[in-house]
Amino acid sequence: MKRILILGPGGAGKSTLARKLGEKLDLPIVHLDQHYWQPDWTPMEESRWPEVVADLTAGDRWVMDGNFGGTLDLRLPRADLVVFLDVGRWQSLWGAFTRVLKQSGQVRSDMAPGCPERFDAEFFIWLWNFRRDTRPVLEEAFARHPQTPMVRLTSRREIQQWLDAL
């Protein structure tokens, strides 16, 4: 495993798992949020984003976290493994909420400069509707790229057990 893609809802532990995998397997970590978001949570110009993602996935070795459904067809063929953190709504919300409590107003190490941690209505709605809106987009992309092996983990316990077993 030299190129690992981590997907799942906010608060599921994607960035934490990316850091742990990067350390364990000595792989560089790519947090897509650091590349997409500009200060004050301004999104990158949409026309540039696919080019940026193509450059990021061109490397021979990486652990990459982030959904960004519009670029899945660029990332999935390059990945040796997809780790899908398919956790439930409440686990995701709890993870995001506790992260905000711990880091509110601070910029996380896996986030772009000028984007302090926050929990607003838009983020809450995205999390609440993830299984209905975003998960099917991911599942369709997985179906288009069956050659890419996938591990589906549904709880923090499964995530930790899988990581320990590596």
TrEMBL record:
Extract the InterPro entries matched here. Cytidylate_Kinase-2 (IPR052922), P-loop_NTPase (IPR027417)
Q: Which residues form a coiled coil?
A: none
| Source domain of life | Bacteria
Gene3D superfamilies assigned to the protein according to its UniProt record, in alphabetical order = P-loop containing nucleotide triphosphate hydrolases
What is the protein name stated in its UniProt record? DNA topology modulation protein
